[in-house]
Structures are given as structure tokens and as C-alpha cells.
Amino acid sequence: MSRLAFLPRPGVRAKQLDPLAPVPLDDRGRAVAHMSASVLLAYPDDATLTAAVTVRDAVAGLPAPVRDRLAGLATTLLDGDPSALQAEYVATFDLRRRCAMYLSYYAAGDTRRRGAALVRFVEAYRAAGFETTQDELPDYLPTVLELSARGGPDGARIAGALLSAHRDGIEVLRSALAAQRSPWTAAVEAVCLTLPPVDAATAERIADLVAAGPPAELVGLTGYGDEGKDLPWA
Q1: Quick one: DSSP state of residue 134?
Q2: 119 lies in a domain?
Q3: Torsion of CA 110, 177, 164, 128, to 10 degrees
Q4: What's the total number of domains in the chain?
């Protein structure tokens, strides 16, 4: 039984959390915060744990609410048992629908609309001149955060638009992680602190998603790269 201790407790349900007040950051500070969150949200293998040491030093100059969350998570990863962390990561992000780190999933779920949503991310990266790998779908939150941090002014602007457009999904992810008392809640909170305030319409969508979860209609996602041309990213 002990090896199953990392699994989420049955019956734990997410609840909508109060929005976090944004923390003022300059462009460099936002880039450091987003790159750090991107690193810490990756699977906790040896490369991530090595990078966590650099993150802990890099965030030292950020405002306390952002710094403390990112540095705290880095310390948690560095001090934890790697095997237990890896098992908890899989149980959290791979096995729970409300903890998906794929931003378009919250609005489109496993439906036919997902393909068109993914195309928007592909076109966004192209507009920023940003190369992505094929290891993850283009709406993967750590990849969007990396675009924000490393894509220059255009990349930061485009990534900011993507994060704002999918703020409801990010907030649902935050709520779900908090309900599970996940250590990775800290990284998502740090990201939310760098984003504009949540408006009333977004708050309403968040409430609906927290209650119902992403839509479901199991379909394949092949061919998404051929849809939705001429999207207005310029």
C-alpha cells in the first residue's frame, strides 16, 4: 500500500480560488519568472533537478510573492526523493483531467475543436520565429512560458496573448493543484501573479470549468497542423 501513497485522495474536489493580485514586474523580471516556472513544471528528472539549482539563484531578485513560490518549489524538488517526485508528477499531470498542462484542453477538451485551437498555437510560434520540439503539443504551458522568456519582444507579446486567452484554464489548473496540495501549485501561482487581473467574464468561465471540467468527445488530434491558416498574430 505504501507505494500508492502518492495517488490523489479520493473525493478531493477543486474549488474556485480567489484571484491573486498581480505583482508588478519589468520585462526582464517577467522573463526570469516565466523561464523559471517553465523549468520547474517539467518532469522532475535529473536535468530538471540540476536546473532547479540555477532557478533558485536566478529568482533571488524577483518580488517576494513570485520569488518565494519559485524558490520554494525549487527547494522542494531538490530536497525530495526523486522517485517519489516522479511518481507524484505522473499521478498529478498525466492522470487528472483538471491538472492538464495543455492550455486549449480546458476550453476544447477532447473534441474536434481542439485541432483548430492547437493550430493557433502553431501559428503563434511561427509568428514569433520560435522553434518548438515535437515532444509536446504546442499548447503545453511550459512551452508557452519559454516562448515568453526567450522569444524576445515579439515572443513575449505573443505568449502574453496566449496566456491571457487561456487564463481560465490556468486558473482551473491552479485550483486543481491546490486541492491536491501539490507542490507544483507554487509554480502556477507564480505565473498567475505575473498576469493581468481576472475580469468578470473570465471569472465566470473559471467557475463553470471548475464545476464541470473540460468538455469531452474523444477524437484524434492528427492533422491539426493543416487547419486554421492566416491567423492574425502580426
Answers
A1: S
A2: yes
A3: -80
A4: 1
In angstroms, the CA 213 to CA 129 distance is: 33
What are the C-alpha distances in Å from 173 to residues 3, 38, 182?
A: 25, 15, 11
Alpha-carbon torsion, ordered 150, 155, 160, 166, to 10 deg? -100
User: Does 37 fall in a domain?
Assistant: yes
Global model pTM greater than 0.90 = no
The answer to whether position 4 is within a domain reads: no
Q: Give helix 141-150 / helix 113-128 axis angle, nearest 10°.
A: 20
In sequence order, the 6+-apart residues with CB closer than 8 A to the CB of 205 are: 168
The percent of residues in the chain predicted with pLDDT above 90, rounded, is 57
Under a CB-based contact definition with an 8 Å cutoff, are residues 97 and 202 in contact? no
Instruction: Give tens-digit pLDDT for 37-87.
Output: 999 999 999 999 999 999 999 999 999 999 999 999 999 999 999 999 999
pLDDT tens-digit map of 204-228: 666 666 656 665 554 444 444 443 3
Under the banding of pLDDT at 50, 70 and 90, the label for residue 96 is confident
